[in-house]
Amino acid sequence: MRWPRLLWLAALLGIGLPAEAHQVNLVTARVALAPDRTVSVELGMKGSDIDRLIGTRIHDARQDAVDPAAVEAARPAILAYVSTHLAVTGGGRACLVGHAAILADGDGIIYRNSFACANAAGDIIYRSTVLTEKDPAARQVVLIAQGKSETQALLDAGDTSVTLSTAPPPLWSTMQRYLLTGIEHIFLGYDHIAFLIAVVLWARRLIPVVKIVTAFTVAHSITLSLATLNVLVIPSSIVEPAIAASIVFVAVENFFARDVDKRWRIAFLFGLVHGFGFAGALRDIGLPPNAVVPALAAFNVGVEIGQVAVVAVVLPILALADRLTAQDRSEPARAAGLVYAVSAVIGLLGGYWLLARVFEA
Fold first, then answer.
1. What is the secondary structure of 223-240 as a DSSP string?
2. What is the dihedral of CA 119, 124, 130, 134, to 10 degrees?
3. Strand partners, 30
4. Distance from first CA to last CA of the chain, Å, rounded?
5. Which of 68, 158, 297, 338 is the 20 to 30 Å CA partner of 121?
6. With a threshold of 0.85, does the pTM exceed it?
């Protein structure tokens, strides 16, 4: 599993990667604990997040890049913010802080500093509320290096610290975090939700829906695993427009075909595409080196729970529409007007996302 680790570090350090290495609402950090109890911290953030937090203007949205001169001018403000929201302590006492560096890095910034904890007895704790204090939905991925071993922690607004000098968190805790991350990705992934709704709009029976959801799950599980483990990686500049195109296709198809019994085939085909999108989200937070397979499985299960929840909400609404519009109660017919209206809205959204993503690529 050396390649995933190297790619994660490359994304963090901005080595040879495009500006998309920094993601909105995500802080990436590498924390190294040396034998002399010195802690080196390197933290990466999106420039637009810095502007939102501090009120600076270092990020150019049109170019999706930061201005190095603006970063240098904002250095005191950035340091003041990070110093307020990041700390390393030993035995409850603050470790001696070194001289911090702020560097422009493509579309974001890198913060580097060291903390000397030799004179601080007890466990060494890294604590950070950078970004998460402002936005509860934000996350911070922390790669912890100690000697030849590496572990990973995922911090958020409710969990702001990690102990560096003790054993890594239990496996179940890691899996629980990735499970919740998978669920969150579906609920925040409006394009995935739009696809799921469009593909089941004509469904009247449960069996076709089960086939559709199963086919979609199997397909995205395959490509999610392949892409996350770097066996097969497709650039997001191709994947994201393809996901939008899949939404347009299914929405338009609703105007010409009502038979959902065979739609599991389309769900499987486009599930392969969506799996690469899920993998992009998972690569943003990385996989813990000591629990790659469990974390990947937990994230996948979380995605599945999220999409089942979406379908479980949509189907009763469609059934209610059937009952309200059926002329013959013994044979409810799907309200064609509702399906066409919803499909039109989803198709327009998909078209907008397709154009936006093509021109952003």
1. HHHHHHTTSS---HHHHH
2. -110
3. 42, 143
4. 30
5. 158
6. no
Which of 23-37, 45-59, 318-332 has the largest mean confidence? 45-59
pLDDT by residue (tens digit) across 149-203? 788 888 998 899 998 876 556 778 778 888 988 888 888 888 889 998 999 888 8
- Does 1 score more than 50 pLDDT? no
Residues forming beta bridges with residue 162, ordered by sequence position = 126
Residue 213 in tokens: 């959801």
Are the CB atoms for 154 and 134 separated by under 8 Å?
Answer: no
The pLDDT tens digits for 310-354 are: 888 888 888 887 777 665 544 445 567 788 888 999 999 999 999
1 secondary structure, DSSP code: -
Cβ proximity of 307 and 192 under 8 Å: yes
Q: Which of these, 158, 85, 76, 157, lies nearest to 126 by C-alpha position?
A: 85
Label residues 241-272 b or e (16+ Cβ within 10 Å = b). bbbbbbbbbbbbbbeeeeebeebbebbbebbb
Non-local (6+) Cβ contacts of 268 within 8 A are 215, 216, 218, 219
In this structure, what are the phi and psi dihedrals at residue 54, rounded to the nearest 5 degrees? -110, -20
Cα separation, 273 vs 206, whole angstroms: 25
